[in-house]
Amino acid sequence: MYAVIRTGGKQYKVAAGGTLKVETLPAEVGSEIVINDVLMVADGDDIKVGTPVVAGASVKATVLSHGRGEKVTIYKMRRRKHYRKSQGHRQNYTEIRIDGISA
């Protein structure tokens, strides 16, 4: 059984027992969260697709940790103009473990 959820403006395919890094969620480490933005639920051949969300479906997850991702370097340059700009960015994330899917 798997589901497609929406959180942080992105969509993720999740299954029970899997871990996932999503955009930062306002939850404490070790707490349980419930995600109600379930776009699709599949259990074998039984597939439910929402318009836009599946009514009554939810995904339960546990917050494992908060952290910062790998550094992304942005470098801009204009040739012959003596313009160089270097910038870095590290995105915050929340790591969650999927405990169960209910449809």
TrEMBL record:
Pfam family of the protein (one): Ribosomal_L21p
InterPro entries: bL21-like, bL21-like_sf, Ribosomal_bL21, Ribosomal_bL21_CS
PROSITE patterns per UniProt: RIBOSOMAL_L21
Single GO term (MF): structural constituent of ribosome
GO biological process: translation
HAMAP family: Ribosomal_bL21 (MF_01363)
NCBIfam families found in the cross-reference section: L21
Job of this protein: This protein binds to 23S rRNA in the presence of protein L20.
The protein, known as: Large ribosomal subunit protein bL21
UniProt source species: Parasulfuritortus cantonensis
